[in-house]
Amino acid sequence: MRLEVAIKAAHRRTRQTYGAERLQRELAEDGIRVGICRIKRIKRKLGLRCKQKRKFKATTDSKHKLPVAENLLKQQFKVYEPNAVWVSDITYVPTDEGWLYLAGHKDLFTSEIVGYAMGERLTRNLVNQSLLQAVTTRSPEKGLLHHSDRGSQYCSHEYQGLLRQFGLEVSMSGSGNCFDNAPMESFWGILKQELINHRHYRT
What we know:
Elements: H1 2-13, H2 20-29, H3 36-46, E1 85-95, E2 98-107, E3 113-119, H4 124-138, E4 145-148, H5 152-155, H6 157-165, E5 169-172, H7 182-196
Parallel strand pairs: 1-4, 4-5
Antiparallel strand pairs: 1-2, 2-3
């Protein structure tokens, strides 16, 4: 009975997003040792289910004739100092008034979001503002590797001009290969699963 109460409390505390494996680690931090299979049985008994992901909405428009950079990062995600590699991407948040788009820049060494911007429209200004915030707050040296997908926002002449202005080296994912930007994709997935998907946003 006490174990059921503990699992139910942990399920609520983790916003109903943790599976049995992560719940096991969560419970272990409270000094409760229990097997994964037993957690699964108790979850089924109590009717505890994880929040499901919402439908996918495309945010990358790669069907354009703008210049595309080579993939210099090549999935080498292990970095040994801050401000050496930033990855960037765009995602979306559903609201009652429509989609809210969110652009972000992440430092691969610190795993911190160093810049972000939100807007009602999926435009190049969104990534421009995110980049400007990152550069303003972090003041990176020239030569930092900036990696993104091949979306028109990142390939735009205006955005590429900003990258050149700040002396950032440009890298882009291969065509249709989301694994080339896995750290940023992973961050969005966790953000949605643990914070966005089980909440209702009016605006």
